[in-house]
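Archive entry. Fields below.
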Amino acid sequence: MEYLTLFIGAVVVNNFVLTKFLGLCIFFGVSKNLSASAGMGMAVTAVMTLSSMLAWLVYNFVLLPLGLTFMSTAVFVLLIASFVQLLEMIIKKQAPALYNMWGIYLLLIATNCIVLAVPLGMAEGGLSFLMTIVYAVGSGLGFALAIILMASCREKLRLADVPKALDGLGIAFILAGMLALAFLGFSGMI
Amino acid sequence: MNTAIMVVIVMTVIGLIFGLILAFANRVFAIDVNPLIHIVEDILPKGQCGACGYAGCMAYAEAVVTDPNVPPNLCIPGKKPIADLVAQLTGKAPLEVEPQIAQLKCNNGISEAIKKYNYVGIEDCFAASLLQGGQKGCQYGCIGFGTCVKNCPFDALSMGEDGLPIVDQAKCTGCAKCSTVCPKHVIDMVPIGGAVAFVCNSKDKGAAAKKFCSVACIGCGLCAKSCGYDAIKIENNLAIVDASICIEKCSNPTCLEKCPTGAIIPLTAAAKESAKIQKEAAAKAKKEKQEQKELKEKQEQN
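PREDICTED_STRUCTURE:
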């Protein structure tokens, strides 16, 4: 049951983008296009899950026994950056169309706070392996939900009559603020 | 001490493991790149200016090698030798490159011009232009903070003492980067070899233009009427010239003499000579007219 609580918590209550305000550069950068956003949501979920599994192993078998938990941020960043680089190489070779659609944003996941937040949350909460996976998948899906919602709205905004001063990023931020307000309604659910 | 050593060992080991994994993956997941792309990229000037319309020299090399529809003469800084070489390497028909050079269309630098307000802020032309079009009275003129100078990939621009950028004719490759970054669009790309340059960008009419600048183009049209080759048009109170006509046909720029404000300046030595002669002739004519008037007045008195 606590797995379900953790999952729902990560997806809507403590949504990584709309409640914790993490991962904003990919959120605003890729959400102009719905299919790119859906793909990016899936990519971030995959990266988060796999890298947090790796981080759990390193944390519990290397850092904790040696008493080096203060190094966890640096080690996690190292893990995530290498892992994303590896993923980029694989995707560039196996799915070049996907690679071209994401462009530079794939590499932005590498040092993005949103991917780092999952292992850090795991370290802080002392989660077990299975709980880490649930937490990572939940937060990834929460990110995907937020970015797909954003992209759907932004595609409609392209046809709207936006004042010149707010065009582009200005109106996107206002929209994100409104979405965040809406997600406030989920607080207190768990 | 023990902790420090442990930290170093742990980080080194993790770094090494991942480094080896990445090196291995680089070999396994390597993509075959056409070696011709690198050969073509090597001969390009590598200013990364984007004049070709692609994001950098590597992007253009890739496009011209892989896409049969991309012409080989898009690199403007490279001019004819590079265009011919690219055509030869990619097996395409060689095409002409129109050489062009940057020309500043403003003759009244910020240090002497009439200002609307005192600007204190980021010394960048774009930043200044966000505040009601910049501190200069004339809203079409050069602001003089040197954003173009900073952005030139070939170091061909330098800021003059009067607040106007100077184009180094030898180094300028015509990539048009300065033209795109200028917030006032006061740098124009013109063909090389014109005898005169039109150095005003002001679209204000007559008196309004002269209010802020004594060498402004007032849109009077005297140059257009005097031009025997139809090279000049007056649009929005500004003289627009087709420089290719001047280079092809004109040997004696009459526009230079006719301009009442001095918005046209001579570029070549011949034009400067002709301008000097015309000025002397005009001064002499004026003196003679003055003398005649005085003589007439004296006669009337008597």
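CURATOR_NOTE: Chain A has one domain: 2-186.
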